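Exercise 7. Given the encoded structure of a 485-residue chain, write a plausible sequence.
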């Protein structure tokens, strides 16, 4: 008796085609699963790297002044407050060492006692790597040197739990396997039912669907549509309309996503650079003053006071950007000295451009206005006035109390603002800042700070012949709200 043959070539086409489709879908699902998991792993690692960079930069900015002063208690305080992470990362383990490799402070002093060496932590890193991931231990290890004026004064070591990210990968893998298995079975059943009716034209449709797996949906050529039956001709035309709609929507969505991402990153990075570079110029000016006249006690006292104010300003800018919603912030009140410092900051630029600066600071005592934010507004407007004024021109700075408002006026002899720049500063435009003009970013930062303080800006003509920027910030509004609370 002859045994039955199981040659696949003799299987019915209605069974063989769905089986081949199911096999193809399994292969595609395996490839796609690997691709999705690889992309997920890369995305998670990029997010970890970005988060670690931002987190360590914030810690470094807060720690450097205290490490320089060897203020161990302040270092402990910053490490303790910075150990709690959000987003499922739990509590981080932080160790701060000095330039000799000896521990200054740690979030867990039992594991890293003071003055102990942390050379064993370097074994987690290869070469100059700043971030490594140990999937076996479900931990991420990061480090960052503490650099001050091109001098290495210490290093920060951080490790935190990434178990939730690994669980996310496992969940995605199980979901992909289940979803792809269900899709493969459904397609096989559907193909078995439809193959008996669509043995010819369905091949064309399947071919174009397969092409859409790895790229845009490809429409069916008109030559193939013309040779099909009336029912399939209508189906192909609808498929082409759907392909055009999907491709157009995908292109628009990708373009909008790229624009939004680039705009957000540009605003954050450029805004941080702009706000930090301003006080840095004053600090370098104070260093030059100390080099030339450091033997005079009054000069040293004034310069050290400016150093402290500038560093506090940088610290407040970083904190306000990276931890904008922390409840323990305590903004410092504005004083007359805060604005007089700006005169020192812009002095070198005034001299370089041969301008005349008329300074009218009529404030006295403390005012319930955030000093850092208002100083940045005044400095941005001063720098803009200096930038647009021609050589030999005059710039006027006025600050006073007018009723219930803090008044700030900056006069220049420049050509005036463009319509777009006026709209940005006055808060009448939601468009991105006109960065190409050289002053757009500073105006955008100024508008944002004024909105936070409840103030407004008005642009008018100055008696000098240029532009007058008049800023009004309510005094006492935040104090009254605080008393009511």
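Solution.
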């Amino acid at each position: 008796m002859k045994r039955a043959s199981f040659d696949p070539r003799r299987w019915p086409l209605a069974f063989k085609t769905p089986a081949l489709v199911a096999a193809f879908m399994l292969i595609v699902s395996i490839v796609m699963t690997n691709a999705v998991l690889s992309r997920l792993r890369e995305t998670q690692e990029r997010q970890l790297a970005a988060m670690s960079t931002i987190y360590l930069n914030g810690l470094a900015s807060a720690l450097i002044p205290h490490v320089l002063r060897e203020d161990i208690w302040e270092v402990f305080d910053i490490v303790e407050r910075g150990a709690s992470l959000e987003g499922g990362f739990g509590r981080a383990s932080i160790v701060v060492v000095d330039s000799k490799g000896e521990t200054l402070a740690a979030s867990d002093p039992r594991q890293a006692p003071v003055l102990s060496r942390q050379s064993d932590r370097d074994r987690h890193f290869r070469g100059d790597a700043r971030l490594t991931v140990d999937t076996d231990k479900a931990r991420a290890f990061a480090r960052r040197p503490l650099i001050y004026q091109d001098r290495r004064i210490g290093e920060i070591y951080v490790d935190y739990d990434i178990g939730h990210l690994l669980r996310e990968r496992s969940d995605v893998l199980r979901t992909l396997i289940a979803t792809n298995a269900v899709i493969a079975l459904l397609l096989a059943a559907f193909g078995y039912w439809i193959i008996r009716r669509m043995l010819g034209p369905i091949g064309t449709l399947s071919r174009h669907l397969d092409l859409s797996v790895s790229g845009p949906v490809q429409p069916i050529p008109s030559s193939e549509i013309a040779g099909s039956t009336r029912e399939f001709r209508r189906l192909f035309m609808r498929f082409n309309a759907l392909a055009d709609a999907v491709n157009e929507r995908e292109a628009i969505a990708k373009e909008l996503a790229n624009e939004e991402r680039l705009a957000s990153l540009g605003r954050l990075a450029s805004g941080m650079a702009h706000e930090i570079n301003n006080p840095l110029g004053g600090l370098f000016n104070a260093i030059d003053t100390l080099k030339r006249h450091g033997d005079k006690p009054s000069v040293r006292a004034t310069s050290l006071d400016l150093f402290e104010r500038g560093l506090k300003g940088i610290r407040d800018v970083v904190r306000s950007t990276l931890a904008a919603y922390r409840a323990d912030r305590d903004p410092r009140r504005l004083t007359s000295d805060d604005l007089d410092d700006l005169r020192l900051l812009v002095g070198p630029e005034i001299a370089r451009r041969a301008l005349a600066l008329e300074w009218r600071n009529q404030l006295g005592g403390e005012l319930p206005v955030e000093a850092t934010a208002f100083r940045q507004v005044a400095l941005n407007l001063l720098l803009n006035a200096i930038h647009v004024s021609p050589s030999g021109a005059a710039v006027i700075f006025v600050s006073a109390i007018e009723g219930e408002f803090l008044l700030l006026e900056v006069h220049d002899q420049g050509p005036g603002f463009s319509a777009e720049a006026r709209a940005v500063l006055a808060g009448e435009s939601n468009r991105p800042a006109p960065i190409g003009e050289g002053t757009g970013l500073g105006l955008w930062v100024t508008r944002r700070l004024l909105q936070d303080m409840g103030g407004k800006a008005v642009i008018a003509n100055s008696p000098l012949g240029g532009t007058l920027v008049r800023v009004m910030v309510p005094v006492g509004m935040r104090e009254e709200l605080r008393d009511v609370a």
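Remark. The domain at 30-167 is CATH 3.30.450.20 (Beta-Lactamase). Students should compare their own answers with the one above.
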